[in-house]
Design a protein that fits this description.
Order of helices and strands: HHHHEHEEHEHHHEHEHEHEHHEH
Number of domains: 1
Helix content: 40-55%
Strand content: 5-15%
Number of strands: 9
Structural class: alpha/beta
Shape: globular
CATH topology: TIM Barrel
Largest sheet: 7 strands, parallel
CATH class: Alpha Beta
Distance between the termini: 22 Å
Radius of gyration: 19 Å
Number of helices: 15
Length: 350
């Protein structure tokens, strides 16, 4: 069974001999690992694709992420200036919406098709898929609708709009959802990627209530994920923070896999929605993967697997958020191989 087939079986909640483990995101980690520059890496899609392929030769992760860390460039493609940082993902330097959501009427989401960075992300996705797409999951990353809308409006202004200017908030969310379809369309429709990797951190339990999630996140995530399914594309959804009070609503999105933040109790999530959606997670990316050792990583991974009764159905072991760029290579390898090693131990005992 190929690594890709294992992940898909997990998404479809079919039995496996052991829980698959994968890297989640890792864009900044990959660039730092190869001592590359963030802006320069994406300037040449072939060189960027080669960087990703070289990284996976070392890791053998069943999921390979293209565009991780470049999420803000989707808004930059609409004309918003962007500032790169020495360490970290680039920041938007101003809001797309200055005062009112009606400003979106003057914008055409199809303009992103002419943006060189977006074109390079598409091309790199195709190159990686051509090289390893038969055996590995190739996925491309983007913000989810709620987070993307917040980035366009300014997070604080958007949060206020969800209370005081609700029509403008929904209009921004509709535009954000359409923008995501324009971004994913070319590489979903030509089959280059088999999974859309969506991060919606502003939908976190640390920021909004379950009621707000149902009113502003669910109505846009659900049809967007359905759109992906119509194009034979799976969805990996990650929402940062404690989402315990939103688990049932998240399962209602029909995402194929929900990636849990390390703040969520895996046993509680498994009990609540484990029969409805594949769960992924949730090793602490900082205290364990970044600051720990291979042994502590294996221990934390095994705790996640134990929390889902062995993880042989509907579970993927991974980090409980994107990887810090300073994570040690040996800790990543410990996470990726711990489940396989445990399977070999169990077989030896039989």
């Amino acid at each position: 069974m190929t690594p890709k087939e294992m992940i898909i079986r997990a998404f479809e909640q079919k039995p496996l001999d052991y829980a698959p483990a994968t890297v989640f995101g890792g864009g900044l980690w990959t660039i730092r690992h190869h001592q590359a520059e963030f802006g320069e890496a994406i300037a040449d899609p072939k060189a960027y694709a080669d960087l990703i392929l070289k990284t996976n030769e070392e890791l053998n992760s069943p999921m390979v992420y293209v565009g991780s860390g470049y999420n803000n460039y989707l808004i930059a493609a609409l004309g918003v200036p962007i500032k790169e940082r020495a360490m970290g993902a680039p920041d938007l330097t101003e809001d797309l919406i200055k005062e009112h959501a009606d400003e979106l009427d003057a914008l055409d989401p199809t303009v992103i098709e002419n943006d060189p960075i977006i074109q390079n992300i598409w091309e790199a996705s195709r190159l990686v898929a051509e090289a390893i797409g038969d055996e590995y999951i190739v996925t491309t990353t983007a913000w989810g609708p709620f987070t993307l809308a917040g980035q366009m409006f300014g997070v604080e202004s958007f949060m206020k709009a969800t209370f005081k200017r609700k029509k403008e908030a929904h209009k921004t969310l509709e535009f954000a959802t359409e923008l995501l379809k324009r971004f994913y369309g070319p590489i979903v429709e030509d089959g280059s990627i088999s999974v859309m990797s969506i991060a919606d951190p502003t939908g976190s339990g640390d920021l909004i209530s379950a009621r707000h999630f149902r009113n502003y996140c669910l109505p846009y995530l659900k049809p967007f994920i359905a759109w992906g399914h119509e194009h034979n594309c799976y969805t990996w959804l990650h929402i940062c923070g404690d989402t315990t009070d939103k688990l049932t609503d998240i399962a209602e999105t029909k995402t194929d896999c929900f990636s849990l933040d390390y703040k969520v109790n895996m046993s509680v999530a498994q009990e609540a929605v484990g029969d409805k959606v594949c769960l992924a997670g949730n090793i602490d990316p900082v205290s364990v993967l970044d600051q720990g050792t291979p042994e502590s990583t294996k221990t934390a991974g095994q705790a996640c697997i134990d929390a889902v009764s062995g993880g042989k159905k509907g579970f993927v072991l991974t980090s409980g958020c994107d990887l810090p760029p300073t994570v040690k290579l040996e800790n990543l390898k410990a996470m990726l191989y711990s489940a396989r090693s445990q399977s070999n131990i169990l077989k030896a005992r039989e």
